[in-house]
Design brief:
Blueprint lengths: L1 H10 L15 H27 L2 E7 L11 E11 L2 E4 L5 E6 L6 E2 L4 E5 L2 H43 L5 H40 L2 E3 L4 E6 L6 E2 L9 E2 L3 E4 L4 E8 L11 E6 L2 E18 L4 E8 L11 E7 L13 E4 L4 E3 L2 E8 L2 E6 L1 E5 L4 E6 L6 E4 L11 E6 L2
Parallel strand pairs: 1-24, 9-10
Antiparallel strand pairs: 1-23, 2-12, 2-16, 3-11, 4-6, 4-9, 5-8, 6-7, 8-11, 12-15, 13-14, 13-16, 14-15, 17-22, 18-19, 19-20, 21-22
Helix pairs in contact: 3-4
Length: 415
């Protein structure tokens, strides 16, 4: 500031100096003044360039097409994602090396369909051994049954001879004891045969574990392992061990999870009519309804999760798709046409020079748009009938310093 004051002092005309002989102007003094003016002008331009290049930090949102004519009766709009209530990462129940993987992403599978096979030579050998042991046990049962049958016949004859006095009673008792011994051996051999059959069952189950089957009808969304890799139901073994073969999603179980601001959750009721619009298909209106309001709030986001059912199933709907849900006072008519224009946050519309305007971010610059705004849909959204297009990024709560052409830096972007 002192240097500028000194420069201004030098601009004053010192009347003590006389004009150059001949009445001509003092060219030296004029040149000095012109130099000072140029210095001040350069300093001003430098300051303007420095502060003009500083980007204003702003928050943005995306202008979206209205869901339907029923938006006029929408009590709330929220964004969320498509989720599957029934999905599973399928794995083998034992550790083994994959010999076959029979799935690819996008394949439709049915319950019980074979998805993969593990190396099973050792388990097949164990099954064969168990079956041989079971066969031997059953042969022993047959032998004991024959011996018992013969012993019973011998005992019957000996008792008949005792009654006629041809043999002693001791011999008849010994024959009966031998028959009872064979009966006990037969019971033991039968129990051994049952144990052997159980071992066969265990070996068969272990062998079946080498075949990975689909637990329900669905679509493969992820193939997680290849032939030659080791699969284990446990998360051990490092990067060379896979815990799953693939992921199956039941497409009939798809629904929507949306986060509703807790300040507006009172507007949502179970079984309430709704309409969903996928981000991927903005012109497709899907009728829906509220399944349930999850009785838990997210402390960090101050939201409550709401489950919404899709009333139409379609192959275009896949998990994790972005979706916008309009909660309706009543179900929109099937023939209702969507209103013209786009939906934007209410705080994106400001008054400038007596007109409704919004600022669109283009190439990191704020561009002013004169718009025509309809009545508010709710406390959060307004319908803009002219001046904006769907998909454009608008600045929410633009500060007064933002004008057409201002450099901006987006710090937060809402869907």
């Amino acid at each position: 500031m002192n240097s500028n004051a000194e420069l201004l002092k030098q601009l004053k005309i010192d009347k003590s100096h006389k004009e150059a002989p001949g009445g001509g102007p003092p060219w030296g003094r004029i040149a000095a003044i012109a130099g000072i003016v140029l210095i001040l002008l350069a300093a001003g331009l430098g300051a303007w360039a420095f502060f003009g290049r500083r980007a204003v930090e702003v928050q943005t949102a995306t202008a979206v097409a209205p869901a339907s004519a029923g938006d006029a009766g929408a009590v709330l709009q929220a964004t969320g994602y498509v989720t599957a209530r029934r999905q599973a990462t399928v794995s083998a129940q034992i550790t083994g090396s994959l010999t076959e993987v029979l799935i690819e992403e996008g394949d439709r599978v049915t319950k019980g369909q074979v998805l993969a096979r593990l190396e099973d030579n050792a388990l097949r050998a164990s099954l064969a051994s168990a079956q041989a042991n079971a066969a031997a046990a059953h042969a022993n049962v047959t032998q004991n049954e024959a011996q018992l049958d013969q012993a019973l016949r011998d005992a019957t004859r000996q008792e008949a001879l005792v009654g006629r006095g041809l043999v002693s009673k001791q011999i008849a008792e010994q024959t009966r004891t031998q028959a009872n011994t064979f009966r006990a051996q037969l019971n033991t051999s039968r129990r051994q045969a049952q144990a052997a059959d159980s071992q066969v069952g265990v070996a068969q189950v272990n062998l079946d574990y080498t075949v990975v089957r689909a637990p329900f009808d669905g679509v493969i969304t992820d193939k997680a392992a290849q032939v030659g890799e080791i699969v284990s139901p446990l998360s051990a073994g490092g990067g060379f061990t896979r815990t799953g073969v693939g992921t199956i999603v039941d497409m009939d179980s798809l629904e929507i999870d949306v986060d509703v601001n807790e300040a507006y959750i009172g507007r949502v009721q179970p079984d309430m009519a709704a309409e969903a619009v996928l981000d991927a298909y903005p012109d497709w209106r899907i009728p829906a309804h509220v399944i349930a309001i999850v009785p838990a709030a997210d402390r960090g986001k101050a939201t409550v999760k709401v489950r919404v059912a899709l009333e139409q199933k379609d192959g275009r709907i896949v998990p994790d798709m972005g979706v916008r849900v309009s909660f309706l006072e009543k179900r929109a008519a099937a023939h209702a046409e969507p209103p013209k224009g786009v939906m934007v946050p209410a705080n994106a519309i400001v008054q400038r020079d007596g007109h409704d305007v919004a600022f669109v971010v283009t190439d990191e610059k704020a561009r002013r748009r004169d718009i025509t705004a309809a009545k508010p849909v709710n406390n959060d959204l307004r319908l803009v009938t002219a001046g904006l297009a769907a998909g454009e990024t608008v600045i929410t709560t633009p500060p007064d310093t933002v004008v057409d052409g201002t450099s901006v830096h987006v710090t937060q972007s809402a869907p």
